[in-house]
From TrEMBL:
Lineage of the organism: Eukaryota, Metazoa, Chordata, Craniata, Vertebrata
GO-annotated molecular function: dynein complex binding; microtubule binding
Amino acid composition bias (Basic and acidic residues), ranges on this chain: 107-120
Pfam families per UniProt: CENP-F_N
GO annotations of cellular component type: chromosome, centromeric region; nucleus; spindle pole
Location of the Centromere protein Cenp-F N-terminal domain: 1-120
Family annotation (InterPro entries): Cenp-F, Centromere_CenpF_N
One GO term of the biological process aspect: mitotic cell cycle
Protein name (Swiss-Prot/TrEMBL): Centromere protein F
Region feature (Disordered): 97-120
Compositional bias per record (Polar residues), positions renumbered to this chain: 97-106
Length: 120
């Protein structure tokens, strides 16, 4: 079949045939370059999609971490408030213990004094 394709070139001058050969060679080279560039383009598009997916995943992870951080901050605030309440309650109870201890000591002294009076 290639002989039929080449048939139209019969009778052309060597200079024209040389020019046709140069143009065909250039056409082949350009086709190869086009294929290479198409492959590069497809590779770059695939890499771009991969990067976009990576960025999207990182955005999702950042959002998840932000929510988790917010939740932990709220938990810390809640624990700090509970700690303050417990600390306050402890101070109140220590104060009550001190008052009762003082009353106990006073009552012991009263009992001792009354026992001394009874002995006399």
């Amino acid at each position: 079949m290639s002989w039929a394709v080449e048939e139209w070139k019969e009778g052309l001058s060597p200079r024209v045939l040389q020019k046709i050969h140069e143009l065909e060679t250039q056409l082949d080279r350009l086709k190869k370059e086009r294929q290479q560039r198409q492959f590069q383009l497809e590779s770059l598009e695939a890499a771009l999609q991969k990067q976009k997916q990576k960025v999207e995943n990182e955005k999702n992870e950042a959002a998840t971490l932000k929510r988790e951080n917010q939740s932990l901050m709220e938990l810390c605030d809640s624990l700090e408030k509970a700690k303050q309440k417990i600390s306050h309650d402890l101070q109140v109870k220590e104060s009550q213990v001190n008052i009762q201890s003082g009353q106990l000591n006073s009552s012991k002294k009263d009992i001792e004094r009354l026992e001394q009076e009874l002995k006399r």
